[in-house]
Amino acid sequence: MDTIRLNYILHLADNALILGHRNSEWCGHGPVLEQDIAISNIALDGLGQARNFYQSAATIAGNGATEDSLAYLRDVIDFKNCLLAEVPNGDWAQTILRQFFFSAYQYLLYTKLQQSNDGQLAAIAEKSLKEVSYHLRWSSEWVIRLGDGTEESRTRIGNALEFLWPYTGELCLPAGYELDAASNGYGVDVSSLQSDWHQRVSSVLEEATLAVPETGWMQSGGKQGRHTEHLGYILAEMQYLQRAYPGAEW
Amino acid sequence: MEKNLEEIFQDKIDREIRIEPKDWMPEKYRQTLIRQISQHAHSEIVGMLPEGNWITRAPNLRRKSILLAKVQDEAGHGLYLYSAAETLGISRDEMYEQLHSGKAKYSSIFNYPTLSWADMGAIGWLVDGAAIMNQVPLCRSSFGPYARAMVRVCKEESFHQRQGFEILLTLSKGSEAQRRMAQDAIDRWWWPSVMMFGPKDDESPNSLLSMKWKIKRFSNDELRQKFVDICAEQVKILGLTLPDPDLKWNEERGHYDFGAINWDEFWQVVQGNGPCNKERLGARKKAWEDGAWVREAANAYAEKRKNRQSVNAA
Which helix (H) or strand (E) is A89 found in, with range? Predict the structure, then answer.
């Protein structure tokens, strides 16, 4: 079994699933009906991307693995998503900013992943890029609106910026399997995305009249299975039926 | 003059000509429609909550995507319906205000809790099934915007209903624990679904006029009977039962007879005493209040942009 390839694809899948799961928590509780629909749509896109990646991972894992066994029967230590994906939704500002940071990263990542020598990954990247381009536009517009809106929205997005910024360093800090995947031609070396990411993010923050934070100490570990306390709760909820009724068909 | 307008109006109705927002209409017709359409829109929005409750716990990725898409469809239905009601001269904010203050109602069915995954199946099969029964005739409602909105709503609802039935079918073929889950969900959702058609015909205060104006085409009891007849057959495919010992085919009537409805429970839930009334309304109010600063920010930003553009243009 090609463990490195498997880990790399699981990492991509876990990012999409966990962020999608978080966004889905908004469904029915959004601040405006149209935006409730938009965030649910983004959640659905994430789930769709996750399913494509998990299906691809399952063929490598073999041994009867399926998209569902990979999503529902691995524990916290096995999940390889970035910490940013699992932090709580907080208020609308925090959700928006998290999405913006993530979409800017996924946009650059998927753009390059289209050149993967793994045909399936290239195809998933191409399809997902269309979705992510919209997520990036949508979240950028909201960051600007909130930064340049009212005093309250500005304070809130400022707080979100302070809270989330330390989680952004991990996005472009490659794990071992990412470096190997890149050198084998099927993955992307995310360190090469860093300056582009910073530039795109800075230009939107500036338009939102927000100061770009200094890059200080950054949290990391998610890609290696060292998570925040939040992921355990996400999985406890998400995996409950699969765990309580092992082997059942749903 | 007034009488003349009313005659022209009723004549259009009788000849099946749609009434459009700019046409003259009796004030009572307008108010009845606002009440009915906004109540329907609120039901879609409040209805997102009991099912939304299971999005994060759906048992596999396929079910999770389907459920999320379904709940999102309900938001979409709410949107078309609020827009249809707005053509009658009421704003969405005013309608929300009526919902939050308790002045406007929504379907009582959503005041029941969703306790297991099987409830996603039972809601799809029974609740969406009853909704479709009520809504298909509304595609021919005399008010144009409502009828057109309902055409779209019904297409999606029938899809939801099949998905719900399929959830129950899968459970019914599963383990003993899954069959128990499915039967329990049917036991809990059956009677509230039967009540969804509203009071008995002789106790339904708004029905007569609505029939005359062709807002409504069939009586509550007619639709209820049709629903019972269909479900009594479909439940056999599941190998499960409906919780009604009096349910029996009546050869003479060509319909199923069914047991007495607990109307006391029905009115209690309407009046706010259902198991989840407070939570459901509380969740809607919270979403609205928590979102106030977001809406203010969006408005403030739009205003600033408009001003900047007009400065640039000048």
Answer: none
